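User: Predict the structure for this protein chain, please.
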Amino acid sequence: MSWGSESESTALIVSLGHLDIWDIWGRYDSVTIYNLDYSCRIAYNKRGVGSLNRRVAKVNISFAGGTASEGSITYKVTLPNVWMKEMGIGEGSRELELSFDGKQIILSRCMNGEDFVLRSLERKHDVRLFKLYDGSTLCTTIYADFTDEVLTFENHVNNPVKTAFGNNLLPTWDDFNYFLEDRCIPRHRAGLREFLEFIGIGEYDPIEIIKKTAGRMAEDSQWLEMENLK
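Assistant: Here is the predicted structure, written as structure tokens:
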């Protein structure tokens, strides 16, 4: 893993090792002793700086209560205040995005579109804005960083059918590309070459097609507005 890469900026990374642990009260119990992949090394990389602050933290493990299913267990880690403040986490901004690749957990602050754009532009990335309309109603605003191939979005209507990603709250870059292509003539449609020649495009490219067609399709009243922010 590259600890100093800019793509890991403003993220907490929890790497898991291996340790046999007792129950949370320090008592041995054959029922509540667990094998937990754990060393819990937590590292924070602020805006691509190579040196990282690292700490070892203990995972608190307890049985879940309330309406949780029988035998459910919760895992909690206390994170340093200074790291949370550096990430902009506070009473008014408490949401974190969690991702897991099988070996490490990454906690990233959920940024609004404005913060996302500012961060990407500071890095001199290729940033583009996409607005999905249904008639005159703005449904979704997508902020896309084409350099890192990451995005964030904001829905402006409650009907998921009218939004860019439906009920998908964490769309990937592949999801984004699928959405763009879905607003274009199908890739394997008969007469595609003639269509591309007619609109002045040499090859199938959803971005270039949408520049010409605004993503308009015969079956609905939705369309796209694009803006290059770099």
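The CA atoms of residues 9 and 124 lie 15 Å apart.
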